[in-house]
């Protein structure tokens, strides 16, 4: 679709006509970082504001959430038809808002004007005022994506692109028979709906949606979503819900004073460097740690129980490596335990008949029914706990080593890549920083696991187990674990 856009300079007019209050604060179209990078638009205080003082107030009717979409659908037959047909998408808070955003984009294009789609509402104007070029990884070129090899973002992006494509295909299949969708979206005209439009709606939502306080859900809050990010120590404003009116307020952080001319900033969650680029397309200029990364794990191909484990494991197949509040590197994974035990330890699977006559796969631990999400706690209470933990530590450490090697091997390609319209400077820079920060975290995690491994190898349980394995290999049947 040819997107209809308005300059950000017009946002204050939109704000005025939609009862958004700016308390001596202005919307600026360009704010530069200390390192010279452009943050896009932002909010600036026009006078000094003390702790807790309001900066912006947005009426609750302007919060764009799944509930708002449902409310609009009650009064708009075309939107209702869309929401009902694409039920799988409209039941999810994120995709419900995405549907609404592409519906507003559709209302705005000239080729839909004759269809009298929708009715005059603030969100059609809001969508025109949002940036239409967003530097999120879902818009990276093929050359830029190659620079991600070895980072945790590479895999996250692959998965994201697959899921966006799947959502778009579902949308197409679900709405193919709705006349207005057929005519405007799916006929082969210049203005038809494409995957790029769906990606744009996703990027708008992902980079702007806020988790609202007081269980008010997740939503996009116009104007407050102009606040840029600053780190934990530097941000100066927070948002809250006004108890009486339900309005969303942006107020000065309790221990701060915002000076005249100072930028108003909030903190976008506490995710790691990968999450920051994934959801917002930038890295803090002062970031000195990747903070966390998620690496995928799989059950080895030669594991005889592999298929059953994959079917029953409910956890995300991976490990999260993170730096805790006391700057220690830690790891957590509920999945890895499935890779650490087998039949000889006491794990088994059985196919049982259900009352309806269907076959159902069940897990057993030492001949007792195993509730699958309790595997980790069961193993941590077992007599052979240290053995299982040692296997988990080795598995995670090997995964970290493989990731680190991939990152190191692809470094020459990163360094020798020349900037062009296929590799933008604004993308090259953050990726380089991410590569450096993740390498640092992987190295620290590897060393931490090495210490954990050394500690476990001192354990009597492990010593006895290895001695037993040694004795068994001297007789024909046994194969000891390799913890080298
Ligand atoms: C919620 S919007 C904030 C308003 C945005 N600047 C705009 O013009 O629409 C989030 C986006 O602003 C930009 N941004 C926010 N904080 C930033 C920062 N500290 N450095 C660089 N870009 C930033 C990123 O593009 C991010 O995806």
Automatic annotation (TrEMBL):
| InterPro entries, sorted | SET_dom, SET_dom_sf, SETD3_SETD6_MTase
Task: Name the domain of life this protein comes from.
Answer: Eukaryota
Q: What is this protein called?
A: SET domain-containing protein
Q: Which organism is it from?
A: Cladophialophora psammophila CBS 110553
Cellular component aspect of the GO annotation: nucleus
Q: Which residues form the SET domain?
A: 18-269
A molecular function annotated in GO for this UniProt entry is: protein-lysine N-methyltransferase activity
CDD domains reported for this sequence:
SET_LSMT
């Amino acid at each position: 679709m040819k997107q209809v856009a308005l300059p950000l300079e017009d946002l204050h007019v939109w704000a005025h006509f939609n009862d958004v209050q700016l308390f001596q604060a202005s919307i600026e179209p360009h704010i530069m970082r200390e390192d010279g990078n452009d943050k896009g638009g932002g909010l600036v205080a026009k006078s000094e504001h003390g702790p807790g003082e309001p900066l912006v107030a947005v009426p609750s009717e302007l919060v764009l959430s799944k509930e708002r979409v449902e409310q609009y659908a009650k009064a708009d037959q075309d939107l209702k038809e869309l929401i009902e047909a694409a039920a799988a998408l409209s039941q999810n808070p994120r995709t419900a808002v995405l549907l609404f955003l592409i519906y507003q984009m559709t209302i705005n294009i000239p080729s839909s004007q004759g269809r009298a789609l929708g009715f005059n509402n603030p969100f059609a104007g809001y969508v025109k005022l949002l940036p239409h070029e967003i530097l999120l990884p879902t818009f990276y070129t093929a050359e830029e994506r190659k620079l991600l090899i070895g980072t945790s973002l590479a895999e996250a992006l692959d998965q994201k692109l697959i899921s966006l494509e799947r959502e778009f295909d579902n949308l197409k299949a679900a709405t193919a028979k709705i006349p207005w969708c057929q005519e405007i979206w799916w006929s082969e005209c210049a203005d038809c709906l494409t995957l790029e439009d769906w990606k744009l709606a996703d990027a708008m939502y992902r980079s702007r949606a806020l988790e609202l306080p007081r269980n008010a859900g997740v939503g996009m809050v116009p104007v407050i979503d102009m606040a840029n990010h600053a780190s934990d120590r530097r941000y100066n404003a927070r948002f809250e819900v006004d108890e009486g009116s339900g309005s969303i307020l942006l107020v000065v952080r309790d221990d701060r004073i915002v000076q005249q001319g100072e930028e108003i900033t909030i903190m976008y969650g506490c995710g790691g460097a990968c999450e920051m680029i994934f959801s917002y397309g930038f890295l803090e200029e002062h970031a000195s740690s990747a903070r966390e990364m998620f690496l995928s794990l799989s059950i080895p191909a030669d594991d005889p129980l592999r298929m059953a484990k994959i079917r029953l494991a409910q956890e995300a197949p991976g490990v999260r490596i993170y730096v805790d509040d006391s700057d220690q590197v830690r790891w957590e994974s509920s999945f890895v335990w499935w890779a650490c035990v087998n039949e000889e330890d006491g794990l088994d699977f059985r196919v049982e008949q259900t009352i309806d006559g269907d076959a159902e796969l069940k897990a057993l631990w030492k001949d007792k029914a195993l509730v699958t999400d309790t595997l980790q706690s069961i193993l941590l209470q077992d007599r052979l706990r240290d053995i299982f933990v040692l296997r988990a530590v080795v598995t995670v450490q090997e995964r970290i080593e493989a990731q680190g090697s991939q990152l190191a091997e692809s470094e020459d390609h990163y360094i020798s890549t020349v900037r062009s319209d296929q590799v933008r400077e604004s993308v090259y820079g953050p990726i380089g920083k991410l590569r450096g920060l993740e390498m640092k975290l992987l190295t620290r995690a590897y060393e931490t696991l090495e210490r954990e491994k050394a500690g476990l190898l001192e354990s009597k349980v492990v010593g006895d187990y290895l001695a037993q394995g040694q004795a068994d290999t001297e007789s024909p049947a046994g194969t000891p674990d390799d913890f080298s």
